[in-house]
Design a protein that fits this description.
- The complex is a heterodimer of chains A (281) and B (306).
- Chain A is mainly alpha-helical.
- Chain A contains 12 helices and no strands.
- In chain A, helix 2 packs parallel to helix 6 (110-144), helix 3 runs antiparallel to helix 6 (110-144) and helix 7 (151-173) packs antiparallel against helix 10.
- The longest helix of chain A is centred in the middle third of the chain and has 35 residues, at 110-144.
- Chain A is globular, with a radius of gyration of 21 Å.
- In chain B, 35% of the residues lie in helices and 29% in strands.
- Classes of the chains: A mainly alpha (281), B alpha/beta (306).
- The A-B interface holds A 1-2, 5, 9, 12-13, 16-17, 97-99, 101-109, 278, 280-281 and B 50, 53-57, 73-74, 76-77, 79, 81, 83, 85, 87-89, 91-92, 96, 100-101, 103-106, 145, 148.
């Protein structure tokens, strides 16, 4: 019961402090921009297919797939940034301002406050993913009739990556200040990002050591590995075999890494609850 | 209730690294008492209250609230708390704010709605029910905070500096609320710097310094106890003064002013009769009661806090 009251409060906060509105408008702007870009690319792709005997409907599908993945890549980045930005202040800010005091002295468990905030932001984040990724997929489908393969599992993995970043942020926020939390989460994300590239390039160069560096960085922060798996799931079959680029993957993270990501999330949530439960306010 | 004490602490201690915030707080506050918690800045008052409310975990010692050990959730349903600086979610309206806290207390909807109406009326904020708290003045925030602390009709209320932002009308309101709480048998734990307020509202006070209770005093005894008296009259003869020794101590005369200490105020008419019988003209007899501020200075010292 307490969890749901706090989740509702979190929701209301997001709407009153214009967080939800800002996110919605930015998301909408992004989808519109993507749609305009897709419109022109689609025109060009159709012309190419008509003019060249080597272009086939299969190559068209590859074009669409790559461009849509590029859009989802940006969506992935935006939802992760959103997940970190919005939640960095959620516990730390309430602790430093003292607003937490009138909540904690009520007959609810401290864990309910953490779960409530987590749940509230998890729902908001889900809406954000649906708005942005859904907008992009819908725009692609309406303009070209193209539909991505394995959309549901791909989006679910993108959501998992965002939830993971959000949960880690809440865990840091239960102990450290807003700024320190932001710094730590961005640092972790940067590490995963660089590690992921080291792994991919290492894989192309057949450098086992570089791949291992990448895997270790993914173990420290699995968010980028989860995105790469999501991108792999949604990549068209032909590109899967040949391509290397920012939106597809030379070295594909295994399903075990996804399970690891899920367990990491649960561990971060447990740490958040435990730290908040034991700290002085 | 299993205990006659609303608050009972034994050697409650809080240490932050090398910094000892509360050395060993031992207190007993009977149910139904209005209890004042006094001390200079940095004496450990806020940390003590935070330990009692479960915001801060004690390093050592134990405490019971309403007969239950600290941290008991069902006890928190019967406690009200007005935090210092009254920092609330200011993007909520007053009505939403009280609804949220009522829900956290687990109050049924209908009862909560009626209670909110009643409390907004009590603290004079009914016309501002739909305004967001960010538009409130400091005094209004304090009033809404007070309403929040009383939502669940608590058995024990902690008020941390409840009058610091209030104008005289607001202070009077707080005083009246505390008075009605006392009549209902609610225990009030009041932390305030405004000694004059404490003097008017509290039954008993504790003076704390460096995280220890130096003394607890019934405020009634301040009124009833030993009193210093100043008398203005025509110049007395030495034998008149020695006669006065029968009625009081430390008799001194300086021209037309006599000072002495009496054990209680009831002696004053006898002194007047005696002086008149001695043929003196008496212009004024003024008992100099020890004020709470005097007592505070005596107990805590003049070095104050940090």
């Amino acid at each position: 019961m307490g969890t749901w009251i706090i989740a509702r409060l979190t929701f209301r906060e997001a709407s009153r402090r214009k967080i939800a509105l800002t996110g919605f408008l930015l998301g909408l702007a992004f989808v519109i921009l993507f749609s305009i870009g897709f419109f022109y690319i689609n025109q060009q792709v159709r012309q190419n297919v008509q003019n060249s005997p080597f272009q086939s409907p299969i190559t068209m599908q590859e074009y669409y797939n790559t461009f849509t993945l590029a859009g989802l890549y940006v969506v992935n980045f935006l939802i992760i940034v959103m997940a970190a930005l919005v939640t960095a202040d959620t516990l730390a800010g309430e602790i430093s301002s003292g607003t937490i005091q009138s909540l904690v002295t009520k007959p609810l468990r401290r864990s309910e406050i953490v779960f409530g905030k987590w749940l509230g932001y998890a729902i908001l984040l889900a809406l954000y993913v649906v708005l942005m990724a859904g907008g992009i997929l819908l725009s692609t489908a309406l303009q070209s009739g193209y539909s991505m393969p394995n959309v549901l599992s791909g989006l679910a993995l993108m959501y998992l990556a965002a939830l993971l970043v959000m949960t880690i942020t809440i865990a840091c926020s239960s102990r450290f200040s807003t700024l320190a939390t932001g710094g730590m989460v961005i640092g972790l994300y940067g590490l995963a990002f660089v590690g992921s590239w080291v792994e991919q390039i290492g894989s192309l160069m057949n450098s086992t050591a570089a791949v291992q560096v990448g895997i270790v960085s993914s173990l420290i922060m699995p968010s980028e590995a989860i995105w790469r798996r999501a991108a792999f799931e949604m990549t068209a079959p032909l590109s899967r075999m040949i391509s290397f680029g920012p939106f597809s993957s030379a070295s594909v993270p295994s399903p075990a890494m996804m399970i690891y990501g899920g367990l990491y999330l649960l561990a971060a949530l447990w740490i958040a609850v435990r730290q908040f439960d034991r700290r002085d306010l | 209730m299993s205990s006659e004490f609303a608050i009972e602490t034994q050697e409650l201690r809080k240490q932050y690294g090398d910094n000892l915030a509360v050395r060993g707080l031992s207190l007993q506050v009977p149910q139904g008492e209005v209890f004042g918690f006094l001390g200079p800045n940095g004496a450990g008052k806020t940390t003590s209250i935070k330990m009692l409310l479960g915001l801060v975990f004690p390093s050592a010692g134990s405490a019971r609230l309403l007969g239950e050990p600290l941290g008991n959730r069902s006890v928190r349903a019967r406690i009200g708390f007005l935090p210092e600086h009254f920092r609330f979610h200011d993007w909520l309206s007053a009505g939403e704010f009280l609804t949220l806290h009522g829900e956290l207390y687990g109050m049924p909807k209908e009862q909560l709605r009626a209670r909110i109406r009643e409390l907004l009326e009590l603290v004079g904020l009914t016309p501002f029910e739909h305004k967001q708290l960010r538009t409130y003045s400091k005094g209004m925030l304090q009033r809404i905070g007070l309403a929040q602390a009383l939502l669940n009709d608590p058995l024990l209320v902690f008020l941390d500096e409840p009058t610091s932002g209030l104008d005289p009308v607001g202070r009077r309101l707080v005083r009246d609320i505390i008075h009605s709480l006392r009549q209902k048998g609610t225990t009030v734990f009041l932390n305030s710097h405004l000694l004059s307020e404490v003097e008017i509202t509290c039954d008993r006070v504790a003076f704390i310094k460096q995280g220890e209770v130096l003394r607890t005093s019934q405020l009634k005894s301040l009124v009833d106890g030993e009193t210093s008296v100043t008398i203005r009259c025509s110049e007395p003869a030495p034998e008149t003064l020695s006669g006065l020794e029968q009625l009081g101590k430390n008799v001194r005369a300086d021209g037309d002013t006599i000072t002495l200490t009496v054990s209680e105020e009831a002696v004053l008419p006898a002194i007047t009769r005696y002086l008149v019988a001695q043929g003196l003209d008496v212009y004024a007899i003024t008992p100099q009661r020890l004020s709470l501020e005097d007592l505070f200075m005596q107990v805590v010292g003049t070095d104050g806090g940090l």
